[in-house]
Amino acid sequence: MPDAVTICECFARDGLQHEPEFVPTETKVALLDSFAAAGFRRIEATSYSHPDRVPGFSDASQVLAAITRKPGVAFKATCPNPRAVQRALDDLEAGHGAEELSLLVSATESHTERNLRTTRAGQWERVTEMARLADGRFRLVGVVSVAFGCPFEGAVDPGRVAEDVARFIDLGADLVTLGDTIGVATPPSVRAMFTRLQRAHPGFPVVAHFHNTRGTGIANAVAALDAGCRHFDTAFGGVGGHPTGIRYGAGLTGNVCTEDLVSLFDAMGVETGLDLDQLAAASAACEAALGRPLSSMVARAGFARSAALA
């Protein structure tokens, strides 16, 4: 049997946080429904960031209330602080909560201060409180940002990242995501990190979240796959990056492109559980929603399997 992977589609959160214009709520809902129709079992739907700081997600509750729920599909919301978790709990009580919550830390002090407006120690205190508030009512996803390199401090000690993963596991996280936030990871550094974590926590799902800023995202995803990783974050069209109000990095800061990685995995015999025709339709809908061609090569050339048959 071929290997099987789980891909979490992140267009609606990590993708849209980089967009300067507000995407209408009904458009977001239609896109999220199309992602579920394509077969994604994990979908990043929105963020409970403060509306004044990240206005693009001021409709988080409305989006979660309007999406079509399908059995076996988990929608995820990002929570930067305890107030965000309380909002998630309020939505859950109202009958339209997320199934998963992302809890964020950064691997460096400088990025923590810039992105989360606190210290690493302060953010870990927040995360501990957030896990307590969640009280087992959500699947918790720990996120370690700048896990392979920081825009302010440069190289990041892999030991510190490993310690952060262990802390999340101790707090009861169900998965932990490693974010290559500025796209500086390489296949050797990825292979070493995922191998280290597999040895330290056998069977625990660590998610590969690569940005394609320097064109290495897919190579890094294959390196993670070879090291035993079976969970990946991607975004249609390769969109995404830091929130528009936070300025660091340059170039195309987006995520690994969903269409391109799925096409490669499919050609390699790696099972994704995704319908390629529905995926192509969702890809076109994402481009229409943003009003421009996006960065997917497959969107221009077609899936590898289809091209081979032609």
Strand line-up across the major sheet: 1-2-3-4-5-6-7-8
The share of residues in helices is: 40-55%
N- to C-terminal distance? 26 Å
What percentage of amino acids are in beta strands? 5-15%
Q: Which residues sit in consecutive blocks of at least 5 with pLDDT less than 50?
A: 306-310
User: What is the average per-residue confidence, as pLDDT, rounded to a whole number?
Assistant: 93
Instruction: Give the overall shape, derived from the CA principal axes.
Output: globular
H-E string = EHHEHEHEHHEHEHEHEHHHH
Structural class: alpha/beta
Q: How many DSSP H or I helices? A: 13
CA radius of gyration: 18 Å
Largest sheet: 8 strands, parallel, barrel
Number of strands: 8
Q: Gist?
A:
The protein is an alpha/beta fold and 310 residues long.
3D structure, described in words:
- With 310 residues, the chain is an alpha/beta fold.
- The chain is 43% helix and 15% strand.
- The protein is built from 13 helices and 8 strands.
- It has helices at 11-15, 25-38, 60-66, 82-93, 109-116, 120-134, 158-170, 187-200, 217-226, 258-268, 276-290, 298-301, 304-309, and strands spanning 6-9, 42-47, 74-79, 100-106, 139-145, 175-180, 206-210, 231-234.
- The protein has an 8-stranded parallel beta barrel with strand order 1-2-3-4-5-6-7-8, surrounded by 8 helices.
- Strand 5 (139-145), helix 7 (158-170) and strand 6 form a beta-alpha-beta unit.
- Helix 2 (25-38) packs across helix 3 (60-66).
- Residues 306-310 have low confidence and may be disordered.
